[in-house]
Amino acid sequence: MSDRETMADRISAEDQKRWERVRERLRAELGDAVYNSWFTRLELDAVAPGALHLSVPTKFLKSWVQSHYASRIKARAATEFDKVERVVIDVRSSARKPKQRDALAGRDETIQTRAAADNKPQPLAFVTGADTGDAPAPRRAARSVRADADAVIGSPLDRRLSFSTFLVGPSNQLAYAAACRVAEARPGDTPLFNPLYTHASVGLGKTHLLQALAHATNDNRRRAVYLTAERFMSGFVSSLTTQTSIAFKERLRDIDMLIIDDVQFLQGKSIQQEFCHTINALIDAGRQVVVAADRPPSELETLDERVLSRFKGGLCVDIGPLDEALRVKILNARIAASQDTHAGFHVPEEVISYVARTILTNGRDLEGAVNRLLAHVTLNGAPLTVETAETAIRDLVRTQEPKRVKIDDIQKLVASHYNISRADILSSRRTANVVRPRQIAMYLSKTLTLRSLPEIGRRFGGRDHTTVLHAVRKIEELVAKDKSLAEVIDLLRRILNEQ
C-alpha cells in the first residue's frame, strides 16, 4: 500500500468537516455559478503534515483550478487545517479502494450511483510528476482514446494548442469560457450550447481554441474529432470512391463531439447535404457539435439554408480584434518560447510596447514580428532598440496600413442598406426608420475616421457635436445588447474597409 493510500485511509470525520467548511467559504466568496462550475467535484484525498491533498476527475479541471484558484484554496484551508504550506491537486482514478471511495463520496451520491460507476470503464488518470517506467494503464487508455478519435478521419492535432497556452483577453473571453464549459461536460451530459459556433478573422485564435477543446474533451474520457472543412470533404469523397460511405457516416455519428473548422470552405450540394445530416443526427442524439468560420452564419451565403438554420439555433460567439494588453501578452509568450532555444534573446519592455502598438492585425503577425526581432539579434549581434525594431518589422507595418474611409461613403452605404436616401440621413427628419440609420452612420464615422465630433456633426447636416456623441453612445449601448445589430454594423464596417 502506498503512503498516499495510507494517508487517505486516515482521513478523519473531523477533517471532512473542516474541508466542508472550506468549501462553504469558497462558495460564499466566489458565488454559486463559479463554485458549481469548478468546485463541486473537488474532493479531499488526504491530510499530510504541511500539505492538503485534493483531487478532481479530469486533467483539464486540475489545470484550471490550479491556474486560477490554488492560492485562494490554500488561504481558506489554512483557516481550518494547521500549518498548511501547500495544496496538491491530483487527477483521481475510479480505481480507489472501497474504503477510500466511501470516505470521499459526495453527500448526495447514492450507493446505487457508486455501484454503477464501479462498472464503468476506468476514467483517465494522469501522473503529476515525471513519468517512471512504463506508462500506467490509465495513461495508455488516454492515448488510446485520442488515437481512436484521430483514427476515425480526424485532422492532426497540435499538442501545443491547449487551453493552458491560449491567452485570454476581452476580445476572446466569451468564446474561451464557452469552449471551457463544453470541454468540461461529462459523458452523458446534455450539451448546454449545441451547436457552438465561433467566428473570427484570420490569426485571432479560433483554430487554437478548437484544438484545445478537442484535447480537453479527449482527456475527459469523451471522443472528439477535429476536422477542417477540407478534410471532411476529402473524407466524404474518398468514402464514395471506395464505397465505404456507410462506414464513414457511422464512424462520424458514433463520437461524442464533432469539431469542424473553416466551415466557410464547405462546398458541393451533396457534401453539404451529408454535413447537414451528420450534424442533425449528432445534435438529435445529444452529441456536441462545434463549428468555426471566418464570419457569422448570416454571411455564409454559399451554405445550405438548413445548415445555417442549425448554426443559428445554437450559441454564436465571435473573437474580436486583439486589444493592446492581449497583444503584449502574446508577444511575451512568443519571446519566452524563443528564449528556450536562444537563451541570449532579450527584448526590452519599450520594444515590446512599440510592437504591440504598431502591429494591430493578428497573432500570426505578432509571431512574425518576434521572429524578425530574433533574426536581428542573432544575425547582427546588436542589442534591440525601438529604432532597430522599427526597421526589423517594417514590412509587417507597411502591409497593414489602415484604409482611409470617407464619411460620404459611410453615409451612402448605410442609406443603401436601410433603403433610404443619403438626403434622408442629412435631413432633419426624426422618424424611426431614419433616426437609427443616421446614428449608425455617425457611429461608424467616429470609429472609422479621424474626424472630430464637431466635424462629423457638420458633415451630417450641420448638427451639434453633442448630437454625434449621443448617437455614438446610443449605438455602443445597443450593440452590447442586440446581437443582430452588432452583426449588421460589423458587416458594414467590413464592406467599408474592403472597398
Report on the structure:
It contains 24 helices and 8 strands. The protein is an alpha/beta fold. The strands form 2 sheets. The protein has a 5-stranded parallel beta sheet with strand order 5-6-7-4-8, sandwiched between helices.
Briefly, what is this?
This protein has 24 helices and eight strands. The protein has helices at 3-9, 13-30, 32-38, 59-78, 98-104, 111-118, 137-153, 173-183, 206-219, 229-241, 245-252, 269-284, 305-312, 324-339, 349-358, 363-380, 386-392, 394-398, 407-417, 422-426, 432-448, 453-459, 465-481, 483-498; strands spanning 43-48, 51-56, 86-91, 196-200, 224-228, 257-261, 288-293, 315-319.
Keywords:
single chain; 24 helices; five-stranded parallel sheet; disordered N terminus; 499 residues; 9% strand
Mean of residue pLDDT values: 77
Poorly predicted regions are 1-9, 94-152
Helix content: 55-70%
* Fraction in beta strands: 5-15%
Whole-Å distance between the termini? 72 Å
Q: What's the SSE blueprint?
A:
Elements: H1 3-9, H2 13-30, H3 32-38, E1 43-48, E2 51-56, H4 59-78, E3 86-91, H5 98-104, H6 111-118, H7 137-153, H8 173-183, E4 196-200, H9 206-219, E5 224-228, H10 229-241, H11 245-252, E6 257-261, H12 269-284, E7 288-293, H13 305-312, E8 315-319, H14 324-339, H15 349-358, H16 363-380, H17 386-392, H18 394-398, H19 407-417, H20 422-426, H21 432-448, H22 453-459, H23 465-481, H24 483-498
Parallel strand pairs: 2-3, 4-7, 4-8, 5-6, 6-7
Antiparallel strand pairs: 1-2
Helix pairs in contact: 2-3, 2-4, 8-9, 10-11, 14-15, 14-16, 19-21, 21-23, 22-23, 23-24
